[in-house]
Design brief:
44% of the residues lie in helices and 18% in strands. With 273 residues, the chain is of the alpha/beta class.
Length: 273
Amino acid sequence: MTISFKYLLITALFFCISAPLFSRSVNVGVKTVVIDPGHGGRDPGTVGKHIKEKDIVLSIALRFGQLVEEWFPDVRVLYTRKTDVFVDLYKRGEFANENSADIFISIHANSIDASEEERNATSGNETWIMGMHRSEENLRVAMMENRVIQTEDRYEENYGGFDPTEPESYIVFSLIQDVYMEQSLRMAEYIQNEMQNGPVRRNRGVKQAGYVVLWKTAAPSVLIETGFVSNPKEEKILMDANNQQQIAECIFRAFQRYKNDMDRIVYSYGDDK
């Protein structure tokens, strides 16, 4: 563990202790959504027999964004990428922060490296929020997604010495107080409820793990795994343009519910007397 990463741990612990000292009232509305199609460019993501994750998630992301623009013209819709390009994970979070995102939605497709029998049996969608992994499987999935940072230039410097292959590095996520946990969880649950009406209906639930792309984003954030490319039947579903549109519509309906909630809620942090 490098000195810079130890400093990060200490800083995270400080904010956990000092957070209750801040007192403010915040009107929580949704004016800006940042949509993050996972992977891209030299990083194909998971690869099936016929498709690449980066292509499927870009199509779903653009369709989802178009729905938001159509139905909520007052909402600013931004993308971390709109074409087949590679974007460093930390830059995705920076982009959301620089544009004062009110919610960050990262879209992915899943896979499992296992026997043919297990690949055929493993299916469904799930939504992840920032948090400490609760099982070895959650840690494995997070490590698989995070390892792409090793292909980035100067990744050790950009991530403060964080090593995505070392389980010990993930202790930082247990120390960071996620002030957006409640909102992130709300959005994740809405997504999972809506996805049961889509083409991939098996609900694998809402889960927590230390995803770097969520860690770097200072806003309510979710990462959606839309289905398993490693499952031949599900790969075929994800390849179909009509099914991609249905998945985008499911995400949109969840966003609509979330936006309606946030637009009428005022959260009070601390005591403003």
